[in-house]
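Tip: read the tokens left to right.
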């Protein structure tokens, strides 16, 4: 046996009747493999140290806190500028007044967290879950929430949210058949950008789903005028035709909740005459 083979492996390979030629190759390989598999995972010393520092001092700029479990953590006024918080769980955490400028919060859960007065300028909020959080008084970049999930968050309004954020949130609500909420969001988007014909069409579709056919027809007619003003006569003609179709049942004295009895289900849940419009206009805006 080679002099570098020791311990149990040597005794096993020299035992009477053993298959020494296989133990010398496969046996050592299996032993090494088992040793590797049974070794504990390397400790995330940097992350753990930063986590302890944060919880003890609340002062941890540029800390590495990826995947950290901080549910219900009290981090009021914490300094987390430039911190790496990707995929961390900060659900229900208290981050009032926290400094999060430039922090990476990609795919982080902040669901139900309190972020009153927090500074989120420059923070990366790609896929961040901010549902049911409190963002009252929070400092945000214009359009900073565009790629996050902020539905049902408190403290947000048209003064905080950009036009694309409001319009796209309206699309999300409409696709989930929550048409009153969609109508409100499209109305807020229109206040910020009154000449955005697509939002007038989208609001008209949301109103038609609620049986508000007269208001829906007005929205479509106005959208048609905007398209005509921009030289898109074909689109204007299509919208004018749709507006007339909405009002036709009322003119014929039909009873019922407007177009409600003719609605289709799912994403294209609109009267058949409006289905092409729904498929064309109920799409999120690109950023």
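Filled-in amino acids:
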């Amino acid at each position: 046996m080679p002099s570098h083979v020791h311990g149990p492996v040597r005794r096993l390979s020299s035992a009477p009747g053993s298959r020494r030629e296989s133990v010398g190759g496969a046996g050592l390989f299996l032993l090494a493999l088992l040793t590797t598999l049974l070794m504990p995972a390397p400790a995330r010393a940097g992350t753990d140290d930063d986590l302890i520092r944060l919880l003890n001092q609340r002062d941890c700029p540029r800390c590495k806190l990826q995947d950290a479990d901080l549910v219900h953590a009290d981090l009021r006024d914490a300094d987390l500028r430039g911190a790496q918080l990707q995929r961390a769980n900060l659900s229900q955490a208290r981050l009032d007044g926290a400094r999060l400028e430039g922090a990476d919060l990609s795919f982080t859960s902040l669901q139900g967290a309190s972020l009153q007065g927090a500074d989120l300028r420059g923070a990366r909020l790609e896929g961040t879950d901010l549902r049911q959080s409190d963002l009252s008084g929070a400092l945000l970049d214009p359009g900073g929430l565009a790629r996050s999930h902020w539905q049902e968050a408190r403290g947000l309004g048209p003064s905080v949210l950009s036009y694309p954020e409001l319009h796209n949130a309206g699309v999300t609500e409409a696709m989930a058949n929550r048409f009153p909420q969609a109508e409100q969001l499209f109305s807020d988007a229109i206040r910020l950008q009154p000449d955005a014909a697509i939002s007038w069409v989208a609001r008209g579709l949301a109103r038609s789903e609620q049986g508000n056919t007269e208001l829906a027809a007005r929205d479509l007619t106005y959208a048609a005028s905007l398209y005509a003003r921009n030289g898109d006569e074909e689109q204007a003609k299509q919208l004018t035709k749709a507006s007339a179709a909405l009002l036709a049942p009322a003119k014929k004295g039909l009873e019922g909740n407007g177009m409600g009895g003719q609605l289709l289900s799912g994403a294209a849940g609109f009267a058949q005459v409006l289905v092409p419009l729904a498929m064309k206009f109920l799409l999120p805006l690109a950023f």
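Residues 1-24, 33-43, 254-271 have pLDDT under 50 and may be disordered. Residues 60-156 form a domain with the Pectate Lyase C-like fold (CATH 2.160.20.80).
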